[in-house]
Queue: 4 jobs
Job 1
Amino acid sequence: DAIREVVTSLKPYVHKELIILNTAKALEAETGLRFSTIISVGLKDIKYPFSLAMFAGGTIATDLVKHEPLGVDIASESEKTLRILKDTFAADNLRVYTTTDIEGVEYAAAFKNVVSILAGVVNGLGFSYGSETHIISRAAGEVKKLVVHKLGGEEKTFSIESQCWGNDLWMSCTGNTRNREFGILLGKGYSTEEAIAQMRKGNKTVEGINTVKAIKKLIEGSEGDFPLLHGVNEIVFEGKDARGTMAYLIS
């Protein structure tokens, strides 16, 4: 994944204490590692201190430019870093919330893309909005169970009022987002390769694909506890029929 190349290329330019703020809502595909973990390991030999932070929430660039009222979570283990970043980003149209649960925020930001793909699949299959929200709520429950009980995130990070989860999940699953659009194409019968090619025609990337791939590693041995997360991996990477898979999972 490109994150390791970025970290390696960054090392020669670190000449003083710095804050590294991650805005990528993804996990490393092959390992399931969070980007903060990869950055920490990649920069462990530099002599200057650094702190890591994560910026996440339902913020679309065009909405920010239009001065729409929005909210974000910024996470870091360093209280000093949180104070600096809140002072830097808070504005009259952007409310900044802070938390020390960087693990939970990174996982929430990445996994909401997976739930969005699932929501799109249900929509593309022609099911009702109620069916879509049914799958969203169940998949969100699986993510919360996985992160809080297995991966180390805090339960409060996965509340409805959380910007990195409740806010961004709602927007990603019901709005005009790339991950949902990709899922709709899968639901309409496109293969993963065909759906990606279709998205590229509009210069759109699908951020959630790497996290879908990472799911296989993260739930290994516990697939039965996470049927929807396992199911989306089967649809995207194993070529399973979307209609048959979702019909089984919805029943």
Job 2
Amino acid sequence: MSLLLICNGLFIIYSILLSRGVYLDWEVHGFSAWLKSLGILKLLDIPKVLLACALILLSIFMYLGARIAWCVSLILLATVVFLDVAVYKEIGTQAYCSFALGIGLLISWRAFPHHSLTSAGFVAFICIISLLSFSMLGSLYIGEEFKPHITSLMDAFYFSIVCMTTLGFGDIVPITSNSRIFTLTVVILGITVFTTSIVYVMGFLARGTRDIVKKRIAKMHNHFIIIGSSVLASQLEKGLREQGKPVIAICSDKNNAFYDASANIVEGDPTNIKTLQAANISRANWVATLSESDAENTFILLTIQECPETSAKLITIINKDENRDKISRLRPDMLFSLASLGKEIMMKVLCDESIKSSDVTDLLLNKYLKS
């Protein structure tokens, strides 16, 4: 695929030069006068030449199996086909070759599995440099169609950066239809290139962070597992972490906002055995089910008991006292009831009875030994 990509890029450049009837004498002209040399191309030929050069450079990372190179190459090939069909209105051999190569890339997507920050950064660099080159060459090519005229490399570079970053100071203004269309093209491509590059790099960093968390969780033993998306669960996890205890929180991906960014979080359904295994439950010391639903806590306890080689102690919260007997049948090591605690303490206060620490302990924790 990499070799085909190189051949396609060279064929694009060759087709453009051949269509212009250009025969270059490099020894005589030498392209020393770059602006004069640029005159061999029409304005709409410039992006195709740059696209071809980008495809040739991307072939290096395609050979290494980089997923971002595959993705960007696919987009560039689609752009080449679009230019031939919609802009040039010429469907020739080169357009068919680009289309066929794009189909081939789609079919062979499994051959490009690698994600690398280096590859992502370099591909983003290629895209930005290509767009910058297109913007500079194009603005110089039609420099007289701007007010004031763009006549130097510095002016072209300044105008290109202003357009690509969508700053738009307004000191250089397009005054013709061609220059306005060209400026809009640079702005749209600039937004696309910068957004795609930033999103991919940030996505790679996020995946890297998740991989680090997974490796850290895999090494944990005698740790605490907090299950649930509630204020109590988040505060307990934070308290254990502040005391230097190894702790993992399990919650659904839409409810992880309850926990701090520095927490070790396993996202998923806690009633799924694979989610519990991802939290290394077989080596855990304590598991606390602190969901705000007694039914969910019950299903979580049942799932934990189905996990093989699990010796962790179980503590669960009771949200409604009428569910105490039902949950106790699952024989958790501890039942935790805030409602009972609050009721009994308030009754003692209202009846002017003394409150002993042993009474609070008995009310707070209802212990059941596993058979």
Job 3
Amino acid sequence: MQVRPKLVSLDATGTLFRVRGSVGEAYARAAEAFGVHGLRPASLTRGFFAAWRDHNVRHPNFGHGTELSSYNWWSSLFGATLAHARPELSHSEEFAADVFPKLFDQVWHDFTRAEAWEVFPETEPVIKTLRSNGIKVAVVSNFDERLPLLLKNLGLDHLFDVVLPSCYAGVAKPDPDIFYQALRKANVEGSEAVHVGDDYKKDYRGAKDAGLSRAFLMCRDAVALEKAAQVPPADILHNLSDLLPALGLQGPTLAQLSQCQGKAKRV
């Protein structure tokens, strides 16, 4: 007989929600509003991921434990992203003094707003099903201090017993301590908890190394699935609805949710 967990911890981006469109599209729209025209979203997106990798190597966990605040960490990353798409901006004193600070501040706040994100259709129904079965739910995410406000603006904050962004934990996944902190906050043992996330090293291996009873890897597309060859098929989820039968619970499938949404739109 399958033993139900007392806690399900969930990653945020890629598991509960995703950026609407692309980061490059969001940055290009913001730049247009400040008179910076013609930035190509695809180039901005490539620049973003290059800067993301670099900043996470040089200043992990949004600069925690260094002289950088997360606000300044993101400001530096945003500047590097713009420079990738249009190098001459990094040499403009006028842009740096008059435009960049206001533009970045707008972008920083834009990503706390619901309009910047797309919540996966199964997110809320699945979490409600978990809670109705007496299971606590946590968010354990490599995220900055905007996460609680973002969850509130998305209308999801009431669904969680624990919200633990890495900047509050002081460590980031896959460090076991972020999982240990979530377990303590939820007052459960690792053997009573499972974790779901979309990153093999940070989520799947991180949760297993922390001693959680089970970990699931979210693979929403073929590219992610190809990278998950070392993960047992039973530990792979294609969407959050797949978690319920994996835990021996009944609940709506993604197809059923999509059908209901379609009917609602036609009413």
Job 4
Amino acid sequence: MDSTKIALSVFTAFGALALLFLLLRALRHISTFLHPSTLPKYLNKSKGSYALVTGSTDGIGTGFARELCKHRFNLILHGRNPAKLSRTKAELSREFPDLKFLPFTFDASKPTDSLENAVREQLGADIPITVLVNNVGGLGGQTHAQFMALKDHLNDEVDRIINVNLRFMTQLSRVLLPVLERNSPALIMNVSSVSHIGMPYLAIYAATKAYIQSFTNGLNMEMRAEGNNVDVMSVEIASVQTPGNPLGHGFFVPTPDKIASSSLARVGCGSVSVVPYWRHWLQKMTIDVIPESLVKRLVVYNVKLLKTEWKRREEEQRSTDDLRNEITGEERGESRKEA
């Protein structure tokens, strides 16, 4: 009987400690949402501080650009398409006529051998950049590579995914670090994803997000070790309303502007890596407490659903394009007859 009571007491104590651990962990995460943002400290109004946002012509990147404008930062807009950069610049200039906007054109999915020259030629050496948002990511413009098994990828496809999500971010951070140090206090924000735990049919993409987490932690410690006043953090996001997202809308699927504002609101929260949007945080907490085997089954199930929906949309788009081409061909034929 005594041994039974002792065993029950031990189990009760372990259970209480486990609950206390989960409670303290939840409170620590909740505190990140209550901490006021320290983003204003990177804005030097006398110098006219600039923020550089990579991949700023679409989705989350445009959201970051707009939100940083609201905080009175001048903007360097990065993209690979000059026409889209011009449109984004024109839209933001109309919305924020008193701010300055500079385009920076570079294809993040390509090799980075010429990146230093591109930065020097397009931006110069003296521009007062104090914020770098490494946002660009995805499949490098390869929509056909969405939800594709690793064995079906070509060599060039793999390289493009690694370049756009990993290599470009690393090299741009390296090139701009002296500029950020010179204009400090400064901030590097790396956009990561909760998919860093691993995803089927997105294995390469998810692995690059795990790299971002490790890179951010290492660089943050390096800045502390060197005594540099450059803060480095990452934001982990989940599903967002972007053109490449088959989910579209939903309770857990915010707009790009909402993700951007939530991310900037978490600056200075005390965590190097943070899930900035509270509904995504609820998802992440659920993943953290349920058994790993169940997490894997849920991930496989959900990704298969996404893959099916993506294929359905592709087929619909292909049918629409075929019909449009057929109508265009008939119209051209009629025009020739009339001529």
